[in-house]
Each structure stands twice: as structure tokens, then as C-alpha cells.
Amino acid sequence: MAELLLGESKLEQYLKEHPLRQGASPRGPRPQLTEVRKHLTAALDRGNLKSEFLQESSLIMAKLNYVEGDYKEALNIYARGGLDDLPLTAVPPYRLRLIAEAYATKGLCLEKLPVSSSTSNLHVDREQDVITCYEKAGDIALLYLQEIERVILTNIQNRSPKPGPAPHDQELGFFLETGLQRAHVLYFKNGIDVHEVQQNLTRGVGRFREILRAVETRTTQNLRMTIARQLAEILLRGMCEQSYWNPLEDPPCQSPLDDPLRKGANTKTYTLPRKARVYSGENIFCPQENTEEALLLLLISESMANRDAVLSRIPEHKSDRLISLQSASVVYDLLTIALGRRGQYEMLSECLERAMKFAFEEFQLWYQFALSLMAAGKSARAVKVLKECIRLKPDDATIPLLAAKLCVGSLHWECASVDERDRTDKRELELVLTPTLLYAKKGCGTGKLEEAEKFAKTVVDAGEKTSEFKAKGYLALGLTYSLQATDASLRGMQEVLQRKALLAFQRAHSLSPTDHQAAFYLALQLAISRQIPEALGYVRQALQLQGDDANSLHLLALLLSAQKHYHDALNIIDMALSEYPENFILLFSKVKVESLCRGPDEALLTCKHMLQIWKSCYNLTNPSDSGRGSSLLDRTIADRRQLNTITLPDFSDPETGSLHAAQHSLDPGTPGSPLLECPCSPYLGGECVSTFYLPLQEHAQIKNANLGSWLSFSYH
After folding, report:
1. What pTM does this model have?
2. How far apart, in whole angstroms, are the C-alpha atoms of residue 150 and residue 167?
3. First to last CA, the chain
4. N or C: more exposed end of the chain, with fewer CB within 10 A?
5. How far apart are CA 406 and CA 419, in angstroms?
6. Cβ atoms of residues 573 and 602 within 8 Å
7. Does residue 204 contact residue 184 with C-beta atoms inside 8 Å?
8. What are the pLDDT digits (tens) for 559-576?
């Protein structure tokens, strides 16, 4: 007995000092291992050992043979000792560990030894034997960890009536860890044709779920987080919704892609007399689709990553901190994929906000957080986070361009809508707000434009480091100046800012002559400055570069109407509507032109068509809207803040970018240009319709009444 204990203790000490690695070459005989073999041989040569101790000596000897690289001898020992016949019931936890390590060692030996024949069936049988060994090792390892934790907790409670300290984590070791993790690795690694890949995917996912459903122990916490993350990645990237089955169902015995002869291949080929405990009970949540299960797994992993976070900056904890950061970053990357698919950007921004504890000097987490805030509509916070991203990565021009886009876009127009409501409800506001607060609200949009100007100048002044984005920088700068000119109250300041905008757009067009947006904005600024012929030339250039751009077509129609070419303008609008039949701004302009070219009756039909589109888009026939006194105009006024915004070009892409609505209002009041009174920025659809529908209807009624009077007079 003493020889057995000495041999085992020296072998474990050797493995602790020289840890094994997956795929490492055989170590060969070593002096320490030679001493281990002497002790084990002495124990086996004595004939007075009990049968259970003799079995333990054989298992440890086979383990020693694997460490020395003698795989065939290790397999022979397992065959002689009857590994598959060893009992699992009524045995101490220590013996469960030996059996689990034995199955893992047998699987490793089978992987190392080549197949004696080249027959494909033998290869398949060998792979199945290896996976079965690893699965048995993992199942018994889970049972061992549960039992050893139960024993430790029982001993602590029996020692003292007071609550004792938490038990120390048990070390898994190389063999137990291999048994728990190697089976699913082989499932996802093996597979020649699509049928075998599908079958292995099904079995691999099932194996992941079996491990995760086992009752957790302190030792398996980190392992569970890793497996949960890996399973979430498989569900997101490797499994479609059609092949998904929920965790409480049995895996499909036959996939639609499988050969009929493979029926039942996804079921286990072994049973154990004793299994690890699993979570069970009533009212357990069960996901019903792959994205839902992946999200559940990732939220659990995120909670565990935050709980075990290493945030200390002292040098001794650097490696642990990097491991903690890497683990959390992978979880948040997968959360971004899962929540992005569902459009749950609000929830994503909340998750990434919790990740800020890891984000000290970490650009990736800050940038992800900023993008999630942008997608969630939290533009003000996104700009602040982007400022930190600029500090961490000053040479990346896309970041200030994104910040400028937010300042020129949603933030500016949110402030503009506040100013408009202030002017509309001035009488009511004066009863509530002080003049100082009113003044602060009025300057909100101007401050955002000044901030956008700084971001754009950062890109323009960056030098050769960001030369490919310089044209986008001038484009953003021109937009900023143009909007500042629109908001300016002094005529002289307006002219100065318009000249600056024109110069910036000209510079952007010269730097990127193939960018249709640069030509479009240059044409738009020339139109604002009443240089109609020059604007026509540049808008035609924009259409040559991007012939189906709705904004360029719309601007061309507006410019033609300014020259009183109404029929040509109407043809352009009809052509644009053939590509964008539900574009409200084009329909709005069509009403104006039709009222001049074809009369109010035709324009009235277009208004009715706009009402139908508006009704279908906002689903006003929804039963949830009935019974609440809501009407089209009520819905229109309520949604004004959401729709009275602009869509800016994607500055982050030096090649592409789209604009779904014109960015400025052409100044009204030019003689002979009725369409220049129509704003290019997107107005609310319901207001557009009501603005023209009622006057046109009244005009048509008067016309019909006059016609009836004339007919009655002629007959009499």
C-alpha cells in the first residue's frame, strides 16, 4: 500500500512540475519517472493487495506509460484490467477521479496510435471510440467534482456549527480537463461530407448542453463560462433556425440532409450506471430558437466575466488582467452579433456600458460602446464616447467623421425641433420657462454645429496620415458651414458662411471627382446661392456618377422648375418615383408641379396616393390605434420630432455613402420658382399632404360649382 501511495504521489508531483500539453511529443523515460515505475512495480508484484488497490495500481501504471510515450502498453493495461467493467456506484470520489483520468488517457492513446488499416470504416470506428472515451471521461469527471464538493462541504459543516470558509477550488489537471473539452473539439473538427458535418454539429451541440446542464461546482465555473461562450458562437455562426432544437428536446435522429441509412446516428452509444446531477424543476426557461439560446448563454457568460474580473493594475496581476479582458471582449463581441441581429441596440448599449470596467485604455471596447449608442439613438453620449476614442486613436479619421455626422445630423436637428417648438408655443413657454432657459435652448443647435466644425477640421488638418479621408472631411466641413448659414440671423454672416461652404464643397469635389456626393452637395450649395446654371452642371455630374440617386434627381427637378421648365421637372420626378415609389419628398414636389402643369385634380390624386402610403407605412388601421381618438394629423404632430431629421452621408467610408434626403431648404421667395418654396429637408408626410390636399380640394369644388352654374345658365 505504501509503494502505491508513493508512486502515485511522485507521479502527481512530476506532472505538477512538468505539466502536459495537448499535442506535445512523448517525454520518454526520466529519472523521476523511473522511480515512480519502481514503486508501482513493487506494489503490483506483491500478491497481498486487495482487488480494488490492484486495479488502482494498474490505472496509475497505464497513466505512467502514457506520460513516457508508450501508448500501446497503456492500452494493453486497460484491456487486461477491464476498464469498461469498473463499477461507478458505491465508490469514493478518489476512485471516480482515477476512472475518469483512465478514460481520458485511453482516448489520448487511441488518438496517438495510427490505424493499422486504411479502410475508411476502421477510421470511423476509431474516431467513434476516441470520442466515446472522452465523453465517458467528461461525464465521470463531472460526477467526481460534484461528489468531492459535497464531501468537502459536509466535512466543514460537521467540524463547527458556524459557517466555515468556502472550499478551495479543486484543480482539474490535464486529464480531467481533456475529458471535459476534447469530445466537442473532435465533433466540430471531424467530418468529410455535408451529412457527416451536420451529424457532428448536432452531437457537438448536444454535448455542450449536457455539460452546461450539470449542477455547477466551484471548479467548473471557468470551464462553464468557456463552454457557454463556445456554444453561443456555434449557435450564431454554425446553426440555422431550421436545424435548431431546444435543449429540453431530444436531438433529431435524422436531419433532412442525412442519408436514410444513418438514422439514429445522433444518439449516444453508451450508458453509465451513475450520472452527474443536472438542473431540473418546474418553470425553467427554455429558449425556442438559436439566437435566443445564444443570447441567454452570453448574458450568463457576461455575468460570470464581470464577477471574476481582474482590474488590478499592479504588475503582478498583468497576465490575469489580460486573460480577464480577453475573455470579456470575446463575450461582448458575440453579444454585439446576437443583439445586432435582433436590432436590440438599447440593450446592447447597456451591456457595453457594463463593460466599461475593462475599458481603461482599450480602444475596441470604447468604439463598440460608441457605435451601440449611435444605433440606440443616444447621440449626445455617443459623441462624448467618440471623443475618448479620438484620444486613444488620434490617427483614425473615421472617428471624428462619425462624431461630426452626429453633430450635424441628429443632435443638430433635435435642437432645431426644440427651437421650433419654442417659437410655436412661445406664449405657453413664457409662463413656464425663464428667458435665460429659452436662450439656452435656442443656442443648442449652434453649439453642436461648432463642435462638428472642430471634428471636421481635425480630419482636414491631419495631413498625409488621413489623405484618403480628406475629401470626406471637407464635405463635413461644408455641411457644417451651410447649416450655420441657415441658422445665422445676420445677412452678412450668412453670406460669409455660404462662401466658406462653397469653397469646402469645391475642395471636396476636386479631391474626389468620382464621388457623386461631393458633386451633389456642390450643386446644392450653388442652388442655395442662386447660381442655377452652375448648379445644373454639377448635379448632372452627380447623376453621371450615380444615376439612380434620388436626391440628385430631386435637385435636378427643383432646378428645372426654378427655370420654369415644369414639364421637364415633372418627367424627372416621375422617373425618380419609378425607382422610389414611396419617397414622400418626391411626391411632395410632384404635387407642386402637377398643380401647375396638369391642374389641381391631378395633384389631388397624388395627395390621395400619399395618404394611402402614409396609412400603410404607419399602420393606422391597427386595432391598438382605435378607440383612442387618434387621427392622421394627431399621429403626424406626435411623430414630427422623429421625422424632421436628416440623413447624412456615411463619412466613415471613403468610397461610398448615401443620403436619403436633401440637406437644406432652398431659400423661398425667388420670383418665378415655385418649387424653390418647397423644402428639400424631409417634412412630415401628413403635414405635406394636409398642406396641399385641403386647398386643392377647395379649388376643385369651386371649379365644379362654376362649371355647374355655367351649364345651368346655358340650358336656360
Report:
1. 0.73
2. 10
3. 133
4. C
5. 18
6. no
7. yes
8. 999 989 989 999 999 999
